Amino acid sequence: MLVPLYEAVYEHLEVGTGTRLLGLGCGSGLALLMAAARGAQVTGIDTDHARVDLARERLLPDASGRESSRCGGTRLLYGGPADAADPTRPAYNLVTAFQPIGCTEGDSDGLGPALAEAVRLAERGSAVVLAGWGPPERCATSAVLRVAGRLTERLRTGAAWRPALRDDLEEVAARAGLRPDGSGRVACPFGYADMDSAVRGLFSTGLFDPAVAASDQATVEKEVTEALHPHVRPDGTVWMPNVFRYLVARIP
Known about the structure:
Blueprint: H1 3-13, E1 20-24, H2 30-37, E2 41-46, H3 49-59, E3 75-78, E4 92-101, H4 111-119, E5 122-133, H5 141-154, H6 168-175, E6 179-187, E7 190-192, H7 195-203, H8 209-214, H9 217-228, E8 238-240, E9 243-250
Parallel strand pairs: 1-2, 1-4, 2-3, 4-5
Antiparallel strand pairs: 5-9, 6-9, 7-8
Helix pairs in contact: 1-2, 5-9
C-alpha cells in the first residue's frame, strides 16, 4: 500500500547505483527491493524475525538468507542499527525509516534512539527519511484504526490511537539532531479485493495486536469489519483513500 510513498522518496533523492541504503524497520523488504532494482546497495534491519525471513525470501531467494554478490551485497539482519555496522564497507549515504508514525501514542519513542545509532554509520550530509500518517481528515483508514484505540483504552492496556500532528516528523528529527531538508505528501490508498482481504491486510500491520491481546481476535475482527463497511464499494472491493507524509532530514 505504501509503494507510491517509496517511489516518491526515491525519485526525490535520485536513488541509484551510488546509493548505500540502510533501512530501519525494513519489514518484509518491499521498499528495499524497489531501491535495489534502481541499483542501490541495501541493508535492512528489523526486530521481527518473521518479517526479516520474508524479506530474505524476496531479496535473497537463492542465498539462504546470506549476503549475495548477485544481489549487489544486499544484507538483511535481525536486530538494531548496531548490527548493520561493517567496517569493511563504505558508510551509508541514505537512511530510511518508512514505518509511518503518528498513529498511536508513543509510536515514535523507539525511533529516536534507533536514528541516533544509525546516523553514526552514515556519512555527514546523508539523507534520513522519516514517514508519517497524514491528517485524519485525509486518511480514511484513521477511522478503522480508532477501533484498536477504543479497545485498548477501554481496558487501559497498550497505546491509544491519536491523530497525526503536523510536526510529528520534525520533532523526531530534532530529537535525533537532524536538519530538515524538505518534505512531501503522497496519496497511498488502501485497496482490497474484498472484506476478508481487508481485515487480513490491516491485521498484518501489527497495529491491532494490543487490541487483540486486550480482548480477543473475534471481537477485534468484528469491530474492524463494522468500521470498514462505509468503505465497501458496489463491486465488493474495499477502498480507503489516504495521504502519507515524508520528511527528508540531513545528518549535520
